[in-house]
């Protein structure tokens, strides 16, 4: 869902194998008509397990106050066994979302 508004506090994640590409900064105003990709988190590791651990840490340290984000969705996905094992495909999320809305809300 679009989430225009003012970025009140922004802190990008950092660390080995972590990159966050964005143009966000404290005070930036996201207009009502914008590209929904405001930032891109890229995490790598020597193994899938290491990359997923780094992703969880990066998401935990990411702070974007004042706007809605998809952080809760990504944290909930990290708890799914199919995601952890790589047993997903391009339409997998469509089936997963309706039955996991509560998990997304709890993770936000």
Give a quick set of tags describing it.
108 residues, alpha+beta, 2 domains, two-stranded antiparallel ribbon, two-stranded antiparallel sheet, 6 strands, 36% helix, globular
Strand order of the largest sheet: 1-4
Number of domains: 2
End-to-end C-alpha gap: 14 Å
Q: Which structural class best describes the helix and strand composition?
A: alpha+beta
Shape: globular
> How many individual helices?
5
Computed CA radius of gyration, to the nearest angstrom: 15 Å
N-to-C order of helices and strands: EEEEEHEHHHH
The whole-number mean of residue pLDDT values reads 92
- How would a textbook summarize the main sheet? 2 strands, antiparallel
**Uncertain residue ranges:** none
By oligomeric state, this entry counts as single chain
Strand content: 15-25%
Q: Tally the beta strands.
A: 6
Name the helicity range. 25-40%
In terms of topology, how is this protein built?
Elements: E1 5-6, E2 9-11, E3 18-22, E4 29-30, E5 39-43, H1 48-61, E6 63-65, H2 71-78, H3 81-85, H4 92-96, H5 101-107
Antiparallel strand pairs: 1-4, 2-6, 3-5
